[in-house]
Amino acid sequence: MSSDRDPTPAEGGKPVTRARILAVTSGKGGVGKTFVSANLAAALARRGERVLVLDADLGLANLDVVLNLFPKITLHDVFTGKAELEQAILPAPGGFSVLLAGSGLVEYSRLTPEVSEKLLDVIQKVAPRFDRIILDTGAGISDVVLYAVSLADEVLVVATPEPTSLTDAYATIKVLATQQQRQAVRLMVNQIGRQGEGRVIRGQLQQVIDRYVTPQMIDPGVPFKLELLGEIPTDSAVREAVQKRRLLMELQPGCPAAQGISAAAERLIS
Asked: Which of 32, 103, 150, 196 is the most exposed place for a label (fewest CB within 10 A)?
């Protein structure tokens, strides 16, 4: 995919602006990746963007649970020809749209030429209709996850301050830098205990990247940049929102965690 929102040809010669695609991923599960995807989408929609969240965790989807949606048609139905793409695009709370995947579908646990072709086709078809597409990928560095990430213009890695999460986040970033030759990745640190902790973690990860990852890149003279998009404090309102299957941005938009997500949305737009 192009890294710019270049005009693409359309009927009548008028250019169509393609959505900017953001892949939200993580080194390990349980760090709040889908929570961030959904609430970031709501924050962007509040700022006037037309946003689509595509559940790219094709085999273990849970975006529907976070949003308390009960879809009759999913990406699986589109992939198998049982439904049209338009039927699978649903309005979500928060003012954005969603394309939901099925859960427990073993056929999507590995990347096949058919799966990669169909996912790419779906993204290409919806891209002209939105300002931003958020790909809520699976966790880890499986071939399905890495392929979904490869389709994005930019990547947001979600991590928590826990050592296991940071180790897995580093492993993910290393793969993106060395295999996909990305020169920049954004970082969101969730569940911080004190303000500024995200900046410290970004700095620590950047030091390790500079020492061990940059020398392995095709052009080691171009430094890899890890950019802190935001930090989300530990907040009881998050647990309440998750338990109620509500968006935090709607349930308690003024709470500290929601403010952290809003600040990240502002940085993303600017």
From this structure: 196
Classified as helix, coil or strand, 26 is: strand
- Helix (H) / strand (E) element for 232: namely strand 225-233
Element (H, E) at 101: none
Torsion of CA 252, 254, 256, 262, to 10 degrees: 100
CA distance 210 to 208: 5
CA 52 to chain centre: 11
Separation CA 244–CA 238 (nearest Å): 10
What's the CA gap between 75 and 83, in Å, rounded?
9
Give me the pLDDT at residue 18, please: 87
Q: What is the pLDDT of residue 61?
A: 79
Tell me the C-alpha to C-alpha distance, in Å, between residue 182 and each of 45, 90, 179, 202, 238: 27, 32, 8, 17, 32
> Helix (H, G, I), strand (E, B), or coil: what is residue 155?
strand
Beta-carbon contacts of 207 under 8 Å, excluding residues fewer than 6 positions away, are none
Tens of pLDDT, residue by residue over 49-73, are 999 999 998 877 789 999 999 999 9
Per DSSP, which regions of 27-95 are E strands?
A: 51-55, 89-91
Look up residue 192 and give its two tokens. 């911080």
How does DSSP classify residue 212? I
| CA–CA distance, 40 with 34 (Å, rounded to integer) | 10
Q: Does domain 16-269 have CATH number 3.40.50.300?
A: yes
Of the candidates 43, 42, 66, the residue with the CA atom closest to the CA atom of residue 55: 66
In Å, what is the CA distance from 105 to each residue of 67, 74, 101, 108, 241?
20, 12, 9, 6, 27
Structure tokens belonging to residue 217: 């890149």
